[in-house]
Design goal:
Radius of gyration: 20 Å
CATH class of the largest domain: Alpha Beta
Oligomer: single chain
CATH topology of the largest domain: 2-enoyl-CoA Hydratase, Chain A, domain 1
Order of helices and strands: EEEHEEHHEEHEEHHHEHHHHHHHHH
Number of strands: 10
Strand content: 5-15%
Helix content: 40-55%
């Protein structure tokens, strides 16, 4: 049984529901249609006794695997946000509902996070019961580069990384590999890239007693990930525990180390406003469950586009990176020292009464 959607291939192979993201030229960036197809497929399989578990992968430019998902379709977000297209609102509401479904699915959900796993790709993998990385994995939540914040539940899963790693990943948008992803609790094990196809094929050909047996079979193929490449854990925990984004940047600049100076220079390129907003997001999310975090993020993303008409940091960030490609965003305010506290707090005021929130049904 195979369902071929425009950019999603969904098929039940043996006892496993297998999903392939099939938009390789865009690194499987999620469109609204893809979000809807994924949601419909998962809801169909959730109570289908023939489906013991779900596995998801991405097609790369050279065939299966090689790229998982680079995030949401930011060109669509720019076009929709610039023109007032109401599908912008639909996209975020439905994407976050999909993220929640994956976290609460009730059957094993096995994510093959090969290649690029960023933004929305994290949203459809972090809720999995088994999160697989390979030696080719490049993982990040790089939203501050485009004047956004790590959404899709990013507040929830980043805030649960050890120490202050969540703040560091969220503010800088730094990319990590397999060993760091496992150490930071963002992945469960390493499967060599060359073995993925054989494991995937076996999921469809073997018989399993139950869903846990499917997951255990995949986990039995894990190998040691080796040492972490992030050497600055003590520095991360020190600087990214400081009280606000201004203090973090200034302390890094005042230090003498190369890592500190490089990190400060990176932060100076990000949206100053969103550095403050993101730090607040991660710290608030530590005390929230997933549904609360997603409702908060839905409030925040509404404000990213509409809080300051004509002055959206997100539209400006996407313009600079993906539309005009001048790589020179005109952030407003221009410096982290110039961001007023009341502007940051405005991102966390819900535009909806609780009973009318788009994600009121999430539990």
């Amino acid at each position: 049984m195979t369902e071929q959607h425009s950019d999603i291939v969904a098929e039940v192979r043996g006892q496993v529901g297998c999903i392939t993201l099939n938009r390789p030229r865009a690194l499987n960036a999620l469109s609204l249609a893809m979000v809807r197809d994924l949601m419909a497929t998962l809801l169909q399989w959730q109570h289908d006794d023939r489906v013991l578990a779900v596995a998801v992968r991405g097609n790369g430019r050279d065939g299966a695997f090689g790229a998982f998902c680079a995030g949401g379709d930011i060109r669509f977000l720019h076009a929709a946000g610039s023109s007032g297209n109401p599908q912008l609102e639909d996209f975020f509401t439905e994407e976050y509902a999909l993220n929640h479904l994956i976290h609460t699915y009730g059957k094993p959900y096995i994510a093959f996070m090969d290649g690029i796993v960023m933004g929305g790709g994290m949203g459809i993998s972090q809720g999995g019961s088994l999160r697989i990385v390979t030696e080719r994995t490049k993982m990040a939540m790089p939203e501050t580069i485009i004047g956004l914040f790590p959404d899709v539940g990013g507040g929830y899963f980043l805030s649960r990384c050890p120490g202050r790693v969540g703040e560091w990943l969220a503010l800088t948008g730094e990319t990590i590999g397999a060993a760091d992803a496992i150490d930071f609790r963002l992945a469960d094990g390493l499967l060599p890239a060359e073995q993925q196809a054989a494991v995937w094929d076996a999921l469809g050909s073997q018989r399993f007693a139950n869903g846990q047996a499917v997951q255990d079979f995949v986990a039995s193929k894990f190998v040691a990930a080796g040492p972490c490449s992030t050497r600055a854990r003590a520095e991360i925990d020190h600087y990214f525990a400081l009280p606000d984004a201004t203090a973090i940047v200034q302390a890094l600049e005042a230090a003498s180390g190369d890592w500190e100076h490089a990190t400060a220079a990176l932060l100076r390129k990000r949206s100053p406003l969103m550095l403050h907003v993101v730090l607040e997001q991660i710290r608030r999310a530590r005390g929230m469950d997933l549904a609360q975090d997603l409702r908060m993020e839905r409030d925040m993303v509404r404000h990213c586009f509409y809080l300051r008409p004509g002055q959206s940091e997100t539209l400006e960030g996407i313009r600079a990176l993906a539309v005009d490609k001048d790589y020179a965003p005109r952030w407003n305010p221009a410096r982290v020292e110039e961001v007023p506290r009341e502007l940051v707090e405005a991102f966390f005021a819900s535009p909806w009464p609780a009973w009318a929130h788009p994600l009121v049904a999430l539990r």
